[in-house]
Amino acid sequence: MFAENAAFALGLTLFAGLATGIGSALAFFAKKTNTRFLSISLGFSAGVMIYVSFMEIMVKAKTALQADLGYVVGNWVAIGAFFGGVLFIALIDKLVPSYENPHEMHRIEEMNVDVNTDPNADDPFAGKSKAKLFRMGTMAALAIGIHNFPEGLATFTAALKDPSLGVAIAVAIAIHNIPEGIAVSVPIYYATGSKKKAFIYSFLSGLAEPVGALIGYFFLMQFMSDTVFGIIFAGVAGIMVFISFDELLPAAEEYGEHHLSIYGLIAGMVVMALSLLLFM
User: Fold this and answer.
1) Which of 278, 67, 219 is nearest to 75 (CA)?
2) Is 160 exposed, middle or buried (0-12, 13-18, 19+ CB in 10 A)?
3) Which of 39, 47, 61, 184 has a 20 to 30 A CA-CA distance from 175?
4) Residue 193 Cα distances to 123, 137, 202, angstroms
5) What single-letter DSSP state applies at residue 124?
6) How far is CA 64 from CA 42, 60, 68, 73, 279, in A?
7) What is the rounded CA–CA span in Å between residue 32 and residue 107?
8) How far apart are CA 76 and CA 96, in angstroms?
9) Phi/psi zone of residue 70: left (φ > 0), alpha (ψ -120 to 50 degrees), beta?
10) Residues 254, 171, 266, 108: what is their CA dihedral angle, to the nearest 10 degrees?
């Protein structure tokens, strides 16, 4: 089963990771950030991740672990793996330098401000040297790459077990990667004056997701059993729940009104619930 779905799972992971490039590419075609759309979309992504984590991924993890370890031990291991996933992604957040926060929201308008030709332009990076801006952008790219690594493993593992579930997770992660692409590209653009370089750095930061998938495939699949799968799946659920509450919902509220992000959250849950009932 794993070998048959591997190519499809890797393709989904690549799609989700390279969505960071979409955020950067928006600067080439858009003049204004659609904050309402981003707010709803990020809330929608959080709703999908939260619902699928508790209603599908944790259920599959507990079933697999109970089959191998028994009901009581299986439940304990599933809960431990869930909070282990939360701790893992929280430690990554803690170790990434906070002064170059990759989740700081930026807008497309910032890409269209030319402070060199318009002295009255509002420079979002006033007081920062080009060297500092370049470092800010590259550190943001590195930080996003580190975050994308476990997300890639999550998407890949889910798609191997259940391709339709993998599609839902890949779409949710792709949506949340778009503003991260903007976070990389804006400071890089200001440091170099090149939208091409801004796009390339943003694009490359998303490659960590398929890298995470490949490492998962080559190092974990050879040991795959119900117990290993259950632990990985429960950990994936913890990672996705943490990402939803720590990144997606705060970003959704920062881009737009509070209620828009909540409407998006509920819509994501409804769509995921219906898809689980109808297609999975």
Assistant:
1) 67
2) buried
3) 61
4) 14, 13, 15
5) T
6) 31, 6, 7, 12, 21
7) 8
8) 30
9) left
10) 20
C-alpha–C-alpha distance, residues 127 and 107, integer Å: 19
C-alpha neighbours within 13 Å on the C-beta side of residue 228: 10
Measure the CA–CA gap between 231 and 66, rounded to whole angstroms.
11
| H and E: helices and strands count for the chain | 12, 0
How big is the chain, counted in residues?
280
What one-character DSSP code corresponds to residue 113? -
- Each of the 280 residues of the chain gets a pLDDT tens digit; together they read 556 678 888 899 999 888 888 877 765 565 565 677 778 888 888 998 899 999 989 999 999 999 999 999 999 999 999 999 999 988 887 876 554 444 455 555 554 544 444 444 454 455 556 676 677 667 767 777 777 778 888 888 888 878 888 888 888 888 878 877 777 777 777 777 777 887 888 888 888 888 888 887 787 777 778 898 899 889 989 998 998 998 888 878 876 667 888 999 999 999 888 888 876 5
Here the tokens at position 164 are 């339709």
First to last CA, the chain: 17
